Amino acid sequence: MNGLVKMDTGFQVRIVIFLALLVSLAVTVPGFLSVANASSIIENVGLIGLVGAGIMLTMIVGQLDLAVASVAAVAAIIALSLSGTSLVLGISVAIVAASLYGATVGYIINRTGVNSLVLTVCMLIGVRGLALVMTPDRPAILPFEMFWISDALVAQWGPLTLLGVICLVVIGLVGLALRHTKLGLSMYAVGGNLERARGSGISTARVYMVAFAGSAILGASAGILAALRSGSASGLGFESFLLAGITVAVVGGIPLEGGRGTVINVILGALIIRLISSAVALGGIPGSFESVAVGGILLAMLLLDYWLAKRRQARAKVPKAGLQHASTHSNGGGIR
Q1: Distance (Å, whole) CA 213 – CA 100
Q2: Half-sphere exposure of 54 toward its Cβ, with a 13 Å CA cutoff?
Q3: Domain 9-15+36-311 is of which CATH architecture?
C-alpha cells in the first residue's frame, strides 16, 4: 500500500543519516547522552512532529498548508485568554475554531480549484494579522494560579515529559487513522491520482476538508501546548512552526507530489533535525551553523528523492519496452 513506509532506498538513507548522527554526536559532544538532553530531544520532536504531522496530511492529498503557524498563534491566544474563566473551555473553543477554519479552506480549494499555496499564504497573512489584533499591547498570559500546568508539562520522568508523551500519542493516533480508516486510505487515493479517485466515487471535498482541518487542529494543538509550557502567547509567536513542520516532513521523506507518507517519516525527520539542534546547543556553536546544516540536509534529501523518482520512472519504462519488442517480434514471425 502506498501509505505504508517501505524500506526503499530513500528511507534506508534517512535511517543511516539518523544513526550516523546519533553515534557521532554521542561520541563527540559532551553531555549529549544525558537524561536531560534526551528529554529535551523527545519533547521537541513531539512538538515539531505534531506540526509536521498536520502538514503531512495536506501533503498526502497533494496540497500544502502554509498557514499553520498563524493558526497556532491564534489558537494559543484564544486558549490562554479564556483560561481565566476555564482552560478547558479555552482549549475547546480554540480547537473547534481551528477545525472550522481548516475545513473551510479545504472546501474552498475543492470548490474553486485555487492553488493551496496561494490560498494558505493569504490565510497566513490574514490569520497572523488577527493574532496581532487579539494581542495589541501585551501577550495573553496564563493565570498565575495555573502555572502548575507548565511545571507538570515539563516535569521529567526519566527521558520523558508529559508534553512529549501527549504529542507522541496524538501523532500515533493520526498514524493509526491514516492506515486503518476508509477516510485515511481515501486521502492516499486522492493524492496518488485525483481523477481516478473521483471516478471511484471518493468525495474529494470531504478529503480536502478533513486534511486541512486536521492540519489546523494539529497546528493549534502544538501552539496551545507550547503556550502552556511557556505561560504566554503573542501575535508574533510560533513563526518557526511553519518552516520546522515542512522541514521535518520533507527530510523524513514525504513527497511533495502527494499519495505517500506516514507519521514514521515525520518522526524520523524530526529526530534528524533535533539531533542537529541539540549538538549546536551543547557545543556552543552559533545558531547560524544550525541553519546551514539543516538547509544542507533538506537540499540533499530533495535531490535524493528527485534522483530516486527518476530511477523509478526509468525502471517502469523498461518492462513496457520489453513487452513492445516481444509483441513486434511475434507479429513479425506471423507475417512471414
Answers
A1: 7
A2: 34
A3: Orthogonal Bundle (1.10)
Each residue's pLDDT tens digit, 296-328: 888 888 888 888 878 877 877 765 544 455 444
Statement: the pTM of the whole predicted model exceeds 0.90: no
- The whole-number average pLDDT for the span 238-266 is 90
Instruction: Give residue 91's Cα distance to chain centre.
Output: 21
Residues 280-288: contacts with CB under 8 Å, at least 24 apart: 282/29, 282/30, 282/31, 282/32, 282/37, 283/29
Burial class (CB in 10 A: 0-12, 13-18, 19+), 132: middle
Tell me the C-alpha distance between 237 and 223, whole Å: 9
Cell matching residue 156: 521529567
The pLDDT of residue 318: 62
CB 244 within 8 A of CB 295: no
What single letter denotes the amino acid at residue 289? Answer: F
Cell 561520541: give the residue.
27
Q: CA–CA separation, 219 vs 140, rounded Å?
A: 18
